[in-house]
From TrEMBL:
One GO molecular-function entry: carboxy-lyase activity
Keyword Lyase listed: yes
Superkingdom as given in the UniProt entry: Bacteria
Pfam family, one: OKR_DC_1
UniProt family annotation: Belongs to the Orn/Lys/Arg decarboxylase class-I family.
Lineage of the species this protein comes from: Bacteria, Bacillati, Bacillota, Clostridia, Eubacteriales
Domain (Orn/Lys/Arg decarboxylases family 1 pyridoxal-P attachment site): residue spans on this chain: 3-265
Cofactor(s), by name: pyridoxal 5'-phosphate
SUPFAM superfamilies the record matches: PLP-dependent transferases
InterPro entries: Orn/Lys/Arg_deCO2ase_major_dom, Orn_Lys_Arg_decarboxylase-I, Prn/Lys/Arg_de-COase_C, PyrdxlP-dep_Trfase, PyrdxlP-dep_Trfase_major
Protein's recorded name: Arginine/lysine/ornithine decarboxylase
Stretches assigned to the Orn/Lys/Arg decarboxylase C-terminal domain: 380-424
Amino acid sequence: METPVYDFLVDYAEKNGLRAHMPGHKGRSPENRLAELFRLDITEIAGADSLFEADGIIAQSERNTATLYGSAAAAFSAGGSTLCIQAMLAIIKMEGRRIIAARNVHRAFLNAAALLGLDVQWVLPRYSGGILSGELALPDVEAALAASTEPACLYITSPDYTGRLADTAALAELCHRYGARLIVDNAHGAHLAFFEKNIHPIALGADLCCDSAHKMLPALTGAAVLHTSREEYAPLLKQAMSLFGSTSPSYLIIASLDLCNRYIAEDIRGDIAAALPLIAELKSSFAERLIFAEGDPFHITVRAAESGFCGTELAELLRSSGVECEYADDELLVLLMSPFSDECDFRRLRTALESAVSGASVREKGHRDISVKLPRMACAIREAAFAPAEEIAVEAAEGRICASVKVPCPPAVPIAVSGEMIDRDCIEIFRQYGIKTVLVLRER
């Protein structure tokens, strides 16, 4: 597959012309190890196209992406899925639709809701062992859609941080039956289109979705793609993204998405086919000692507490063997691999995990039960997010109004949302996740 953006950058660098334009480094690096990257880092010069008004090489590369994924249109983001989420919600606001969202959203969703002045109706997933992952029940979603007196849009996160996959096809059918739209935060699932069975949200009926290419594909951090399956949304993608995105997007990030197209076209299916048996073999070797969560196979999520271990301790032991995990807490250990991980990576992970499990202290098996209820909404998200606030100890926050979402990132899943009244249940969850202070509205 052609790589028009990358080819342009290489050609421009090799001409070795005088750069009387931004950036200030002029194609030269003060550090030798970054020298080649600096040579390829440019701005919107003649022929380089412009991300938010693309009609040249960037537009060509985006069309390649849309073809690979089967999207009606695809738009590149150098600002991660955060920018894509902002744009998706802006498009829905343009349509005047009410947002119904599964509660296990990323912090980026809540920040966008504050900026756009959105009111959100929450649907609680049926959590198990923490707030990171839960099953979204179809009857709960249907009840919310049926009760809505306005045109609606359902927003879900799938895969979630642990790799759990929602029943996106069923949710899409349900939404469309009620005349609603479906948005999927697919930040962790850019690879899902290339399994033997395509399970990417666009293939399953989503109207809009975002992929963080950098999470699961060989692309630079911040590389993401906004997809739509609806032709009428195609001209809105860049319009909405330009409201929030930097006017100086990184050409290195854009070029990495361009190169990713070639990887997808030529190599990803073979890499997935090679990796899946290695993942199955790894899990099988620990079948008597570890419980693994179901979902996307590249999210190797250990239910540590249910297996009789502490996820944090396992992560520390892995680190001592040179393996850095994606996330760990008392309950879970998330080991994030990708189709680009090779056989050596999986063998090394298996050896390190064997050492960690052998060296970890054994606990009584079980998981913490967290009672998640929706706190009372005291004021609008936007009103609370922009109101005068103060930081206080979590233990002193009962009865106070949450001003700003405070969550560890990763995983960035909210406990209390801006505008909600903090109650004892919230405080207990804050405590369990090690959060000691919270921003609340200043009392008058």
